[in-house]
Amino acid sequence: MADKKYKCFDINVSDHVANLVLSRPDELNTMSRDFWVELGDVCEEINRNSEIRVVVMSSTGKHFCAGMDLSAFSNGVDNIPDDKKPDNSRIGEAVYRVAKELQGYISSLEKIRVPVIAAIQGGCVGGAVDLVTACDIRMASNDAFFCIQEINIGMAADVGTLQRLPKLIPDSKMREMAYTGRRMYAEEAKDAGLVSDVFESQEKLLEGANKIANEIASKSPVAIYGLKAVMNYSRDHNVNDSLEYNALWSGAMLSQKDMTEAMTANMEKREASFDKLVDVKKFNESDS
Question: What domains, with CATH codes, occur in the chain?
Fold first, then answer.
């Protein structure tokens, strides 16, 4: 994966931690067409790299991400003569498919087996809020702010914010932000539960995020995978169904070897050492 180049991201893997960096500061890291496609690609790469146990997603420049690059998107009918244009239902159906595709890219962050820590500086606007709400942990620098920008451009957010944010902060506060398009600054975000910690600078933010990442990476990768899967399922299902899922996961995935190593390392007052997960190739990859 280290050899693969992306236009919108830089990625570096060290000691089981992948630092994934939004890398277009001059464009405020806006979410262009390349961004969306590469987000799906990089999530798949991370998911298949058995060396990776946690991701820190950060950014460059003044703002974490200024949201959707609207100039890069159209419904495909802008340059079609009026007498050739499809009817409104077909245009609407095309917009539906685009929204579903973008939702899928955001959801890929939530579905990969490893936890994702978002380290947010400056503005986190519009689609960027969709992005970070799909992460496991959010941290911010003291200059960070969050804005559900879509209402300010005459539309409703449609890629995940309205579904995930009310599970992170009080529903009333989420609705206030969605209806007004106002900014929520770092301290309010911490008080509301959107971020778990606020740091005095981006440098301190990255130190804090990587400290948590290193601690997660030191744990059993099978257990961490199980935790993410069970917590995500439990968030979206009732208690009884979630307990059933939890029991089935434990029956299928509980690693006696990792448990023994963790307990032994604790008694011997040393760092535990866990085997990496098994590498799984794509079906279209050659064995040569």
Answer: 9-79+89-217 (3.90.226.10), 221-267 (1.10.12.10)
